[in-house]
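Protocol step 4 of 5: obtain the predicted structure for the target chain.
Materials: sequence only (see below). No template structures provided, no constraints applied. The aim of this step is simply to have a reference model before the mutagenesis design in step 5. Sequence pasted as it appears in the construct record:
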Amino acid sequence: MDEDSLVELWDRLKSVERFTFEARSGEGSLTGWNGVATGSVDVLCQIPGTIIYKEVCQFVPENGETMQLKNTYEWQQVSGMIRLSHARRVDRQHLVDIREVEEGCFTGEPHLCGKDYYHLRVKLLEEKIEVIWSIEGPRKNERICYVYQ
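Step 4 output (structure tokens):
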């Protein structure tokens, strides 16, 4: 693993200000989670080795009214990897530990939430971070592609 890429990802995570995402439901999905969003990220780096993202966005579904979405994520440096947790409640929910799998590309083991598996892939692009969630389960077949800048 190239430690420099992990350091570069960490440094870029600290400098994010905004994001977009596109959500698409695949064959067999019962959610209809299709649409696009644009939003901002308030980045908090008060504890060494921890970055908190407070995200707010306007989600525009293909068939429905625009809605505001809020999320809080915690990124942590942990020996040779970065841990991502969902932090919108008091109890953090560990999502994934990401490691570099090829230059500038990171992933981790899928995590189970209810009956659905969530898989994450992170890629360093020029001046951007691409984060792709793939969600598969009995009712879900989703792909959500974030671009952080």
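Step 4 remarks: The chain has a mean pLDDT of 93. DSSP finds one helix and eleven strands in the chain.
Proceed to step 5.
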